Amino acid sequence: MTNSPLTPGLAAARLPADAIAAGFSDHEPPLDPHEAAVAADRCYFCYDAPCVDACPTGIDIPLFIRQIATDTPEAAAATILSSNILGGMCARVCPTETLCEGACVRETAEGKPVEIGRLQRYATDVAMTAPQPFARAAATGKHVAVVGAGPAGLACAHRLAMHGHDVTVYEARPKPGGLNEFGIAAYKATDAFAQREVDWLLPIGGITMECGKALGRDVTLTQLQDDFDAVFLGVGLGGVNDPGLGAANGVLRDAVDFIAELRQTEDLTSLPVGRDVVVIGGGMTAVDAAVQSRLLGAENVTIVYRRGQEAMSASDHEQDHATGAGVRIRTNATPVAIHTGDQGAEIEFAYTEDGPGGLQKLDETFRLRADQVLSAIGQRLHAMPDGLVVEGGKIAVTGPGRSTVAGIWAGGDCTAEGEDLTVSAVAQGRDAAEDMHTYLMGGKNG
Amino acid sequence: MADLRSNFVGIKSPNPFWLASAPPTDKEYNVRRAYEAGWGGVVWKTLGAEGPPVVNVNGPRYGVIHGADRRVLGLNNIELITDRPLEVNLREIKQVKRDYPDRALVISLMVPCDEDSWKAILSAIEDTGADGVELNFGCPHGMSERGMGSAVGQVPEYIEMVTRWVKQYSRMPCIVKLTPNIADIRKPAEAAKRGGADAVSLINTINSITSVDLDLFAPEPTIDGKGAHGGYCGPAVKPIALNMVAEIARSAETRGLPISGIGGVTTWRDAAEFMALGAGNVQVCTAAMTYGFKVVQEMISGLGQYLDDKDITLNDLIGRAVPNVTDWQYLNLNYVTKAQIDQDLCIKCGRCYAACEDTSHQAIAMLPGRVFEVKDDECVACNLCVDVCPVEDCITMRELPLGDTDPRTGQKVVEFGNWTTHPNNPMAKAAE
Ligand SMILES: Cc1cc2nc3c(=O)[nH]c(=O)nc-3n(C[C@H](O)[C@H](O)[C@H](O)COP(=O)(O)OP(=O)(O)OC[C@H]3O[C@@H](n4cnc5c(N)ncnc54)[C@H](O)[C@@H]3O)c2cc1C
Ligand SMILES: Cc1cc2nc3c(=O)[nH]c(=O)nc-3n(C[C@H](O)[C@H](O)[C@H](O)COP(=O)(O)O)c2cc1C
Ligand code: SF4
């Protein structure tokens, strides 16, 4: 028996194994040395370059590109990694069209920016064939707890270790990496890149990784405050928003959860997907869930977003990526109910109108067939220990990640700083580490 | 399209584009294909004296300077003159010339610096039907160690002497090819003229080491761990060649001596520039070696279009820029310009700012929002900003009209005045 995109309900192996493998292969393959030289040559080496300002980690982009152009990709990588230790992952996952490349003067001039992301990957790929290049300073005797081994926690831990502090990382999941390992679209980080990157950066030394240890379950914040000289919280957003559609007979699933399972599935031909998939939401998670459903062989995949297309947080580039993969995008509709029956499930949407009085639900509705409804309407913070101030659903911080409690810093998605992006998490983890270092070495904390 | 037919010292060709004496003209197979592709003429790869031919290295012969996307900007070679037997070359020359009577075919020669050798080679080529000879006094490597090539070209007395022999023993037009490896290019040109040369051609290659292998610690190209200097050519040498051509064209002693312009000609525009500075035709090597014979088709169409657009003939073009080549002391010091930045074209890269602020005159302001503006009261009009700006015509130089005040100096723009009459010049002649 073989399945196809037309097989009703949920089914695995809707496409031949080679088609699935091709779909999930590196979606932007690496540049070869000649391509890199040509791409690097397009950089104008701008004065006080706008791309640098547009990079949350402030990588010296013109310098690293010039280092590639002069055939020293190792030096280019050192430039990148000294600002952003996860420069390899960021090269793969950053929405460069809204960050560095969006600010490139050649985007203004010709609508064709310098390919900064791909050049960054070129350099970091070279660097990652060798040990991580940073030396650890003499031990300070200080000990820091980092909670969460996502981009924020890893960047923080690496920077603290570099300054000679000892770091213990508590990670609730069995593996480190955070959303790099469990969330990013599979075709952006192929060949177990997230784990390879962690394995490459940890040998700086001084970092103890405690996986399967959750704050609030296995250890309390008070304990950490007592046992360590400082604490960093990089716990991300563990909870998800509820679309308010009830239990919905197993049709409804959270998109982040679906993607996490996908990312951890060795053999993707064993992963079931619906014939008709509906994704609710308008961001990067919605796009990734929709595109990957298509790549698994779903026949019809529709993203439904409650406001107008211009309000979607997924960039034009990402929307194009989705439609290019055969995903349909519908806007101005919000889900009201899921109906199940003999003919298969359907999801019902009410049309909406965005006016001065906010989003209005109209009376008229429509239905879409849906073997699978993936909800991607945002994530939120898990309950936080008492004492920490939470504002707007995120941990309140000031400056470089200082929480309202002395000795506790936070960064990444769990704070309201910056956009919820890998690169922002890295920047915040790094900056918090620098601030903690000043504090630990006798400087002042806020 | 404009008539591109050329008559250079009596040698006729359908266009002024000749292939220079080099690998592209080394043998019949190449030359036939070059003619088929449209080249107006060729100067055959330099022939040596009768007897066992020279040998070349069997390792790499070239060094290269690359620009963006591995574009060849400069080429360096350690190749010698032809390494094929004289009789073979002569037989092929005769056959090709017979089949392409309308194309120019000039034979390049290099033999030892004695009268008998020159007499012998000239009689050997007598009945090939070739249109002329070019004396290779230019190759700067290998042959020069044996007293030929640039070893002759660096001694004006030898140039004059050999040219005289050639004119004495041959009826053919004689072009003397000059080496640029000399302090004043006018001296060898004058010597050639005194010896009776019909024309000079220049430049041959420039002594050079293009690069050093940083693992082997040896110049490139590296032959078994060692390297020798070679001769540099290609787009990079054009500015040097243009200056030398202009020097000969405007010198009182050599004015009117026909010039065949060589050195970095890559497009029709390069050719037009050489001709405007006095070259009667041009010769090409590196562009053909880089892109193949077909490049001549762009040169032909481009030069034709240019002449049509300007509504001038090929002869009108030749030497048209020579009267405007002058000495620094005669430049108008009262001509005042200011840089101006077109804000609509500006892409905000800030290169002009970095250049002017760090290395020039701090005459560009960087305003909020990355707006770059020229400060007229600081701008000395060096035009570095124009040169480093990646957008064509974004920064231009605006001329201040007579009577306006230059905000930098506070002085009014006045009539022509050059250094010879300038008050700061201790040697100034009083204006009459
Ligand atoms: C589907 C999806 C796709 C995305 N795609 C992109 C993309 O293409 N490009 C991009 O830039 N960004 C993308 N993002 C956003 C990006 O992944 C996040 O912004 C980034 O991972 C945030 O890093 P972080 O370290 O703050 O949190 P996380 O990556 O979420 O890491 C937090 C870590 O803390 C652990 N943790 C949580 N609670 C506890 C606890 N109590 N005790 C111990 N450990 C705990 C978690 O297990 C996790 O490992 C995507 C996000 C999602 C959901
Ligand atoms: C605008 C300009 C002015 C120069 N003026 C001088 C000078 O006054 N004295 C001098 O010795 N060299 C002068 N040079 C030559 C430089 O010092 C240097 O030798 C030359 O530019 C080659 O080096 P580069 O091309 O690697 O920069 C000048 C160069 C430039 C571009
Ligand atoms: S012309 Fe020279 S001095 Fe004037 S603004 Fe440009 S770089 Fe500065």
UniProtKB/TrEMBL annotation, chain A:
Pfam families in alphabetical order: Fer4_20 (PF14691), Pyr_redox_2 (PF07992)
Domain FAD/NAD(P)-binding residue range list: 143-429
GO MF: iron-sulfur cluster binding; oxidoreductase activity
Top-level taxon: Bacteria
Domain Dihydroprymidine dehydrogenase: start-end pairs: 24-129
Database matches in PANTHER family: GLUTAMATE SYNTHASE [NADPH] SMALL CHAIN (PTHR42783), GLUTAMATE SYNTHASE [NADPH] SMALL CHAIN-RELATED (PTHR42783:SF3)
Name under which the protein is recorded: NAD(P)-dependent oxidoreductase
Gene source species: Paracoccus aurantiacus
UniProtKB/TrEMBL annotation, chain B:
A Pfam entry, by short name: Fer4_21
Coiled-coil features, chain-numbered ranges: none
EC category: oxidoreductase
EC number: 1.3.1.1
Molecular function GO labels: dihydropyrimidine dehydrogenase (NAD+) activity; iron-sulfur cluster binding; metal ion binding
GO CC aspect terms: cytoplasm
Catalytic reaction annotation: 5,6-dihydrothymine + NAD(+) = thymine + NADH + H(+); 5,6-dihydrouracil + NAD(+) = uracil + NADH + H(+)
Alphabetized UniProt keyword annotations: Iron, Iron-sulfur, Metal-binding, Oxidoreductase
SUPFAM superfamilies given in the database record: 4Fe-4S ferredoxins (SSF54862), FMN-linked oxidoreductases (SSF51395)
Superkingdom to which the source organism belongs: Bacteria
Record domain 4Fe-4S ferredoxin-type: where: 337-369, 370-400
NCBIfam families: PRK08318.1 (NF006183)
Function summary: Involved in pyrimidine base degradation. Catalyzes physiologically the reduction of uracil to 5,6-dihydrouracil (DHU) by using NADH as a specific cosubstrate. It also catalyzes the reverse reaction and the reduction of thymine to 5,6-dihydrothymine (DHT).
Family: Belongs to the dihydropyrimidine dehydrogenase family.
Subunit structure comment from the entry: Heterotetramer of 2 PreA and 2 PreT subunits.
UniProt protein name: dihydrouracil dehydrogenase (NAD(+))
Record organism: Paracoccus aurantiacus
Gene this chain is encoded by: preA
